[in-house]
Amino acid sequence: MYRLLVKNLKQVVQIVDDNTTEFLRGEQQMNNIKILNSSSSTLAILVDSDGKFSFIGEFKDLQKHLEAESVDLGSIETMDSNGGIAIPGFVDGHSHPVFAGDRVHEFAMKLAGATYMEVQQAGGGIMFTTNKTREASEEELRRDFEEVAKKMLQSGTTTLEAKSGYGLNVDAELKMLRVLSTVTPSIPLEISATFCGAHAVPKGSTESEQTRMICEELIPKIEEEQRNGHLKNVENIDVFCEKGVFEVESRYKDYKDYKLQKNFFCSKKILERGQKAGMAVNFHAEELKYIGGVEMGAKIGARAMSHLEEISEEGIRGMSQSGSVAVLLPSTAFILRLTPPPARKLIENGVIVALGSDFNPNAYCLAMPMIMHFACVTMKLSMPEALTAATLNSAHSIGRGKTHGAIAKGRNADFLILSANSWEHIIYRIAAHQDVIQHVVKNGNIVKF
Ligand SMILES: N=CN[C@@H](CCC(=O)O)C(=O)O
Ligand SMILES: [Zn+2]
Hints:
CATH class of the largest domain: Alpha Beta
InterPro entries: Amidohydro-rel, HutI, Metal-dep_hydrolase_composite, Metal_Hydrolase
Family: Belongs to the metallo-dependent hydrolases superfamily. HutI family.
Helix content: 25-40%
Mean pLDDT: 95
CATH architecture of the largest domain: Alpha-Beta Barrel
CATH topology of the largest domain: TIM Barrel
Domain Amidohydrolase-related: 85-447
Number of domains: 2
Bound molecules: N-(iminomethyl)-L-glutamic acid, zinc ion
Cofactor: Fe(3+)
Organism: Caenorhabditis brenneri (Nematode worm)
């Protein structure tokens, strides 16, 4: 009947205490998260046999409740947290975790002053990783990804948005999506996979040709593989909507002859084709140059848009009205020395703000505690805002706002037990989260490392 009991907690950071609130927005809501405190460490959490939170509160109240049900406490697996602190497991709202090789050599180029696009134009960047990823076997990619997934879990991430996008052709994109779809059960990182076949235009192809291939070959193949059960979790569609990569919208209603259509702007086409296949729109917008991607995304009902370093005033208004989640990626702005997105303005204008690691060979950081620290320092979020963005709001960005991202009755029991004076230490201590995180619990099961 019950899977796990955690006792002797001094603090439980719930974020919200219900399973109906899907996100928090605005300064007032994001800074008033629900926290239970007990100076004598008498708080407890009980998880039911479906892996959902069943009780959160004072242990003595739980005892009464269980006695009334005639449940023998001794029969439940019990963890003595010894004055620990419970917080929700992190939901990483944006990552590119399946790839072969690394790009450490490009880090040196960037330190010497090269921009992201200059590295790309010199044959590096996404195409470099694509070539390595195409060469790698599915088994090699899976093995590497599982190592990353374990490290993510160790760093407190229990749910992950994870993109394809280093294949860029039918075989290699499907290979990546299969890796994301079939992680071994001993690595309980929950994945919301995103098809990102429009991550770059490969050499020898064009934006229009790639758009045709994605809409007419790749997405139908994914639909077929989902139907026959070979792919399970392709939930989102992504495009690198950026000047010189995939631009905003097509001038043409009909795009039969792609090759002749020189100014064929493709992001919208691809995103709408993904929507038709049942995927939620969740894409890269306004990272390096403003091109109006956010305005387009808000119009087509994008569930989330990431980066937003160059978002316009109109884009902010659009997101606030559409309810699209702004997934901010502080490590990328940091490593590329970009001006960070206007996080405060987004919050003040009622845009729902979430956080993602953007783990990829350009920005090699998978630890959400570090991402929250960056968000606080470089984007001026408060610590409660950063935690909300990395839990409930990022859960909402992948359609899990009612089930994940908070410690509340009926939600998935994904949580961390911290050892520290207060929960804020998970953000405050730089690159020391391993000392703070004592246990990671996914669906009520303690993760074994
Ligand atoms: N900007 C596009 N995509 C990734 C980078 C991928 C790469 O450089 O390999 C991002 O979100 O930062
Ligand atoms: Zn990205």
